[in-house]
Every structure is written in structure tokens, then in C-alpha cells.
């Protein structure tokens, strides 16, 4: 009985997490005033994130960063 209840809870959690997906390609955003950052600082942060390459490190097993995770398979 405990296994059935445990499986039910796990399925409910899995379906709950899967339901978070959706199509965000046509999402609309709007700008709001920031109390902490000026618009120049926000634009500078966006510009920096556009020119940085994506991270190449992946986490494996114990959480140690590995440059080539396929080397250990």
C-alpha cells in the first residue's frame, strides 16, 4: 500500500512539473521603472549577455565541473 501511495505522489509531482511547459515564442514583455538600476545599466547587462558565449562546463555525478563529460563514459 505504501508503494502505491508513493508512486501516486511521484506521478502527481511529475505531471505537475511537466505542466509548466508552453510556447513562449510569442510572449510579450513590457518595460517598467526600476528603483535600483538605471536604463543604461539594464541595457549594458543585456549587451554583455548577448556577446558572452554559452557555458561549456557540465556537472557530473558529484557536482564537479568537467569540460568534456563524454571522456568518462
Give a topology summary.
Layout: H1 2-18, H2 39-51, E1 58-60, E2 64-66
Task: Characterise the protein shown here.
The chain is mostly helical and 73 residues long. The protein has a domain at 36-73. The protein contains 2 helices and 2 strands; from the N terminus they run ααββ. It has helices spanning 2-18, 39-51; strands at 58-60, 64-66. A hairpin with a 3-residue loop joins strand 1 (58-60) and strand 2 (64-66). The radius of gyration is 21 Å and the shape is elongated. 0% of the residues are buried.
Order of helices and strands: HHEE
Strand order in space, largest sheet: 1-2
Strand content: 5-15%
Shape: elongated
Uncertain runs are: none
Category by helix and strand content? mainly alpha
Mean pLDDT: 75
Number of strands: 2
Instruction: Give the end-to-end Cα distance, rounded to a whole number of Å.
Output: 38 Å
Helix content: 40-55%
Number of helices: 2
Task: Tell me the radius of gyration.
Answer: 21 Å
* Main sheet properties: 2 strands, antiparallel
Summarize this, please?
The protein is built from two helices and two strands.
Essential attributes:
mainly alpha; two-stranded antiparallel ribbon; 41% helix; elongated
